[in-house]
Amino acid sequence: MKTTLLAFAALASVVHADPITFRSSREHTPLLELFTSEGCSSCPPADAWVARLRQRGDLWKAFVPVVFHVDYWNGLGWPDRFSSRDYSQRQRTYAAAWGTGTIYTPGFVLDGAEWRAWSRASSVPAASSQAVGVLEVKLRDRRTADVSFSPAGNAAPPAQVEVALLATAVETKVGAGENGGKTLRHEFVVLHLQTEPLTQDGGVWRATASLPEKTKAPATALAAWVGSGAGQPPMQATGGWLVAP
């Protein structure tokens, strides 16, 4: 409890100071999504693989990771406190776009495409050097994020932005189910996901996203990405720490 309170205090002090700004480069930054569950016995190795990304110096610059906990394992003995029906539906939307309709955990999605090679990789594959535009997110206060995207060249304009509030370094003592008796550690867990339409302002596309005041765990990072819609590859992503680990 003391650690949690200190983390919240640190978050409050950071956000209420000068606005925090996260900004991508002009080149495409990959978005890596993991769909996982505390009730799935094959998920801890994937969770650990993602956790190691926190130590990389190119985190947030060369890739942006987010972890969605699905709810379709919840009826098998252990309700995952981070799970959401919306996140399960997000995975189904991807599967429908791929033409498979099959969902599973752990499931990785790299820039909108199924990625099965994670267990043989040391990090996220490098993106192309194609210039797509600059995505910027500025936090005015604890609950308001101003988003702007400036497309590069003839890049098609995006339709929406998704802003995710993330928790890192959180642990769960699993009391039942396939992982019963284990203590699981999670990184980059999506606590809240807000989707907003983008509106054109000259050559810039803008939106404002609202973040929750209270969450299930100390929120220590933020990720955002723009794209044309659900199940489609993101055009650009950015993110960063709110409270450094």
Written account of the structure:
- The chain is of the alpha+beta class and 245 residues long.
- Helix content is 15%, strand content 38%.
- The strands form four sheets. The protein has a five-stranded antiparallel sheet, with no helix packed on it.
- It is globular, with a radius of gyration of 17 Å.
- The two termini are 17 Å apart.
- The model is unreliable at 1-16 (pLDDT under 50).
The quaternary structure here is single chain
Helix content: 10-25%
% residues in beta strands: 35-45%
Rounded average pLDDT = 90
Number of helices: 3
Q: How large is the radius of gyration?
A: 17 Å
Series of H and E elements: HEEHEEHEEEEEEEEEEEE
- Global outline: globular
The N- to C-terminal Cα distance equals: 17 Å
Largest beta sheet: strand ordering: 1-7-8-14-13
Largest sheet, in brief, is: 5 strands, antiparallel
How many DSSP-defined strands? 16
Structural class: alpha+beta
Q: Are there runs of 5+ residues with pLDDT below 50, and where?
A: 1-16
Blueprint (SSEs and pairs):
Layout: H1 2-15, E1 20-23, E2 31-36, H2 44-52, E3 64-70, E4 83-84, H3 85-98, E5 107-110, E6 113-114, E7 133-141, E8 144-151, E9 160-167, E10 170-173, E11 183-186, E12 189-197, E13 199-201, E14 204-210, E15 219-227, E16 234-241
Parallel strand pairs: 2-3, 3-4
Antiparallel strand pairs: 1-7, 2-5, 5-6, 7-8, 8-14, 9-12, 9-15, 10-11, 13-14, 15-16
